[in-house]
Request: fold
Amino acid sequence: MNVQTCFESGLLKRIPVEPERVQSALDLGRHYLERAQGNMKMQYHDVAFLMAYNAMLQAAKAALFHAGVKERSHVCAVAYLRTLFETEPEGPDLVELLDTYRLQRHRTQYDGETLSQEEAEMIIEDAQHFLDFVEAKTERRKQK
Reply:
């Protein structure tokens, strides 16, 4: 689905930019990341994966909120991020990771597909990086 279709169908909406909403989403992302790390200690790799995905999704929401956009679809969030971060050196790769994990999350959450420790560790590392990336981008835009 493309961004224009997402707006036309109401899956993306323009909203006023509220810095506290951006920060709240980033804080929630950090919270989910901590939960992911805690679940790894209990060897709950699937739960760790889901929490790490939620951390990435909250970072994505923070980026959208910062741009004055609200999402009602993970697919549309990814589509918008593709345009938002297309010129950033790491942007396209990070958005592609988010989309890959989006698909895996669906298989894990709804189909019960299991994950290895290595897969869970990888998304936790990627979620940390994605949160840092979005946080830096929203801070930099705030200063302009």
User: Anything to note?
Assistant: The chain has a mean pLDDT of 95.
